[in-house]
Design a protein that fits this description.
Blueprint lengths: L4 E2 L2 H4 L6 H12 L13 E9 L4 E4 L4 E4 L3 H9 L9 E6 L5 E6 L5 E7 L5 E8 L3 E7 L6 H13 L3 E7 L7 H11 L5 E4 L5 H4 L11 E5 L6 H9 L24 E4 L5 E4 L7 E2 L3 H7 L1 H7 L16 H5 L2 H17 L3 H26 L1
Parallel strand pairs: 1-2, 9-10, 9-12, 10-11, 12-14
Antiparallel strand pairs: 2-3, 2-5, 3-4, 5-6, 7-8, 7-15, 13-14
The chain binds guanosine-5'-triphosphate, magnesium ion (MG) and zinc ion.
């Protein structure tokens, strides 16, 4: 079998290659996972997805980026697992004799940030935002965008996936109480969460963020439209790579200037993923995953008077006594959502047929009455 597989770790390091992909590639090469039967075909190469478009992706090989197509079979295999190719994914890509590049395989990601999206009816789809990240910058404007409850949701999303959150409050140059609000954010976030207030337009003001930009690390920027993610991307990359757009005066809402997720290389060697602003954020995870994001609730719950304390109105509740009320409210809300979403596909199927049965029975009764 003709197996050619090239892996150039030193070249790929600049686009965020980690030990995870190296190990996978070594094993895959051993198992001869990438046979090419076309003698003229270029060797299969490990590349990183830097942009996802509707009908193609852009992949980067450590030197330059190129367009690549994703065969239907690969798309289908991912879709069967409620998964999709996302920016940050590592793939094996191969050029054909016509000069086109194809994604042959996706490396199982070491982590993923995903959310749930309603399709308008009763179905809930899982949308992958980004794969293989070390740090998520939760970007929130100090203008009308400022909302601690929303921030809690972002914190849960990121912590559940095992990604380190860093809170960045932007537009510090436009307000007079940046320090006070930074203190409020620090008080409401889990202990030890890094938080900064910056003017995203000013490189000097963003200098403290340099610690997050380690060479080979991947960073994703998340937040609502107009929060200043693209502005920050440009400042951190030292050049105007991304378009930015004005926000509405009345409510600071952005105009969804960024429409696709894309990965950029910062001068210090970090990879920065800019994302379009999210309108709503519904977590993708069950109660167990949520527990990892709210370890502080679990910790305190041990000291509640009742073992089955719901931390609502029970006497002797240690959680209510110690946790920030805002954070506890978020926990209750996310907990309810997770319970609803934990319903398995089978349960949903059962529920659906039960609904159908009841409708049929109702119709039959109505008919009986008429006859
Ligand atoms: N004064 C000031 N303006 C900022 C700051 N950060 C962003 N802006 C402005 O806010 C507006 C929105 O910024 P963008 O970077 O386009 O916001 P975004 O988060 O990328 O928005 P979407 O792409 O729509 O999701 C632009 O006019 C920026 O110039 C800041 O720290 N200070
Ligand atoms: Mg943007
Ligand atoms: Zn309690």
């Amino acid at each position: 079998m003709n197996v050619t597989f090239s892996l150039a770790p030193e070249r790929l390091a600049c686009i965020g290659l980690t030990a995870h992909e190296r190990e996978w590639a070594a094993q895959a090469a051993d198992e001869a996972l990438f046979p090419t039967d076309e003698p003229e075909a270029e060797p299969a190469t490990l590349m990183r997805v830097v942009e996802v478009q509707r009908d193609h992706v852009r992949v980067h090989d450590g030197c330059s980026s190129m367009r690549a197509r994703v065969p239907h079979a690969v798309q289908q295999a991912l879709a069967d697992d409620a998964d999709a190719l996302a920016v940050g994914d590592w793939v094996v890509a191969q050029g054909d004799r016509f000069g086109d590049h194809w994604v042959v395989q996706r490396v199982p990601p070491r982590n993923q940030l995903a959310r749930r999206l309603h399709d308008g009816r009763d179905k809930v789809a899982r949308v992958v935002i980004v794969s293989n990240v070390d740090t998520a910058m939760l970007v929130m404007g100090l203008d009308h965008d400022f909302n601690l409850r929303r921030l809690d949701r972002y914190l849960a999303l990121v912590t559940m996936a095992g990604v380190r959150p860093v809170i960045v409050l932007t537009k510090a140059d436009l307000v007079t109480d940046a320090d006070a609000r930074l203190a409020a954010v620090r008080a409401a976030a889990p202990a030890g969460t890094a938080a900064f207030a910056v003017a995203g337009t000013d490189p000097a003001s963003c200098a403290p963020l340099a610690d997050c930009l380690l060479p080979g690390h991947t960073l994703v920027l998340l937040g609502s439209s107009g929060a200043g993610k693209s502005t920050l991307t440009n400042t951190l990359c030292g050049q105007a790579l991304q378009d930015t757009g004005p926000t509405r005066l009345a409510d600071s809402h952005g105009r969804h200037t960024t429409t696709v997720r894309s990965l950029h290389l910062a001068p210090g060697g970090a990879c920065i993923v800019d994302t379009p602003g999210l309108r709503t954020l519904r977590l993708d995870g069950d109660e167990a995953a949520l527990r990892t994001a709210y370890a502080d609730v679990d910790e305190q719950a041990a000291a509640c008077r009742f073992r089955d304390c719901r931390h609502v109105d029970e006497p002797g509740c240690a959680v209510r006594a110690t946790l920030d009320p805002q954070r506890l409210r978020s926990w209750h809300k996310l907990q309810r959502e997770a319970q609803r979403d934990t319903m398995s596909a089978l349960d949903r199927q059962r529920q659906l047929s039960e609904w159908k049965r009841r409708t049929r029975a109702g119709r039959a009764r109505a008919k009986d009455k008429r006859d």
